[in-house]
Amino acid sequence: MNNRSMNGFTLLEVLVALLVLSFGFLGVAAMHIKSMQAAHLSYQRSIATLAAQDAGERLWKELAENPPVCPTANTGDTWSVEWYGEWSQHLPGLVHDGSTISKNDCTYTITVEWQDDRFGGESVSNLVYVIRLPGDVS
Q1: What percent of the chain is helix, strand and coil (3-state, nearest 5)?
Q2: Which superkingdom (predicted)?
Q3: Are the beta carbons of 99 and 79 closer than 8 angstroms?
C-alpha cells in the first residue's frame, strides 16, 4: 500500500466539502429572507386589521350620533378622510382608492389595501373586514 494515499484529505475533497457547505449556507440565507418577509407581512396585516376595526368603530360612532339610521359609506365623508389620514401614517403604501367601505343594508365591507413590492407580484396586500350595524336602512 502506498503511504501517500493514507495521509488525509486531498485538495479536491476539501473543495467539494466547501461547495456543499456553501449550498447549505445559501439555503439558510434564503430561509431567513423568507422568514423576514413573513414577519413583515404579519406586521402589515396586523396594522391593516387595526385600521379596519377603527373604521368599524367610526361607523358605530356615526350610528350613535344619528340613530337609528345607518351611516353612509362614502369615501368623501369627513370620518373616512380622517381615517385615511391617520392610518396612512401607520401603514405605508395605504391605497386611498383601493381602501373602500361599501354598504349593503347595514352590513359594511371594509377593504384595506396597501402596496408592497417586496413579494414579487404576489397579491398579499389586501384585507377585507365585514361589520353589521343594528340600524335602519335609509
Answers
A1: 55, 15, 30
A2: Bacteria
A3: no
96-114 burial, b for 16+ CB within 10 Å, e for fewer? eeebbbebeebebebbbbb
Sheet holding 100-104, edge to edge: 100-104, 107-113, 126-132
Q: Tell me, what's the pLDDT at 22?
A: 98
Residue in the structure block whose three cell numbers are 365591507: 109
Confidence of residue 92 (pLDDT cuts 50, 70, 90): confident
Predicted pLDDT at 23: 97
Q: pTM for this one?
A: 0.80
> Architecture of 9-132 per CATH?
Roll (3.10)
Question: Residue 105 carries which DSSP code?
Answer: T
By CB neighbour count within 10 A (0-12 exposed, 13-18 middle, 19+ buried), where does 4 fall? exposed
pLDDT of residue 123: 77
- Exposure string (b/e) for 22-36, b if CB count within 10 Å is 16 or more? eeeeeeeeeeeeeee
Q: Where are the domains of the chain?
A: 9-132
The Cα 50–Cα 44 span in angstroms is 10
